Amino acid sequence: MKIIFVRHGKDDDKFRGGWSNFDLLPQGVNEAKLFAKHLKANKDFYNISYIVSSDLPRTMSTACFAAEELGLPVLKEPRIREINNGDLSGMLNDDALIKYPGLFFNTLQMDEPYPNGESPNDFYVRIKTWFENFINEYKNSDGNVLVVTHSGVINIVYHIVKNVNWNNKLPFFKISNCGIHILDTNSMKLEIENKIDFLME
Q1: What is the CATH classification number for the domain harbouring 165?
Q2: Per-residue pLDDT tens digits for 84-125
Q3: pTM above 0.85?
Q4: Which of 81, 101, 141, 169 has the smallest set of CB atoms within 10 Å of its CB?
């Protein structure tokens, strides 16, 4: 079984993301539509039987375009949300710089939570627990699973699969909007799909 991870389309980076309820920008909608058409055009290759998505608007919108093209439902999964950035969720960057100067994901201590949110360690444990349970749940599936989520989540999965210690200070793997990352659960190899030229059309 393969898990096909994809990050949502582009959202507005003038705001802090995390658990923000903002949806896709027009560019992100276009990326998500092209991604969905790419999946349909290569349906036999991807062989997707299930679609699982973070329940935040930017991921659900991306997943729903794929679902429409593939004729599949979307299963909402709140456990694969981005880190819970608490009071900073959806806040304008300019306002966050004034109200919470110097507070960014990579400035937190591993056990230091965002105000009314998660710590980096909380986030890692949440994703690791979900990932291990998810593989056990779907390992005997007939077909592959599309997981629509966030860059932070996919980065943690990369670290787990490659057996690299994760923390919020390290350089992260590049996770582009609507970029495709395929995990073979037999070999436990996670690779970036090298054919994402659909975004350049």
Answers
A1: 3.40.50.1240
A2: 999 999 999 999 999 999 999 999 999 999 999 999 999 999
A3: yes
A4: 101
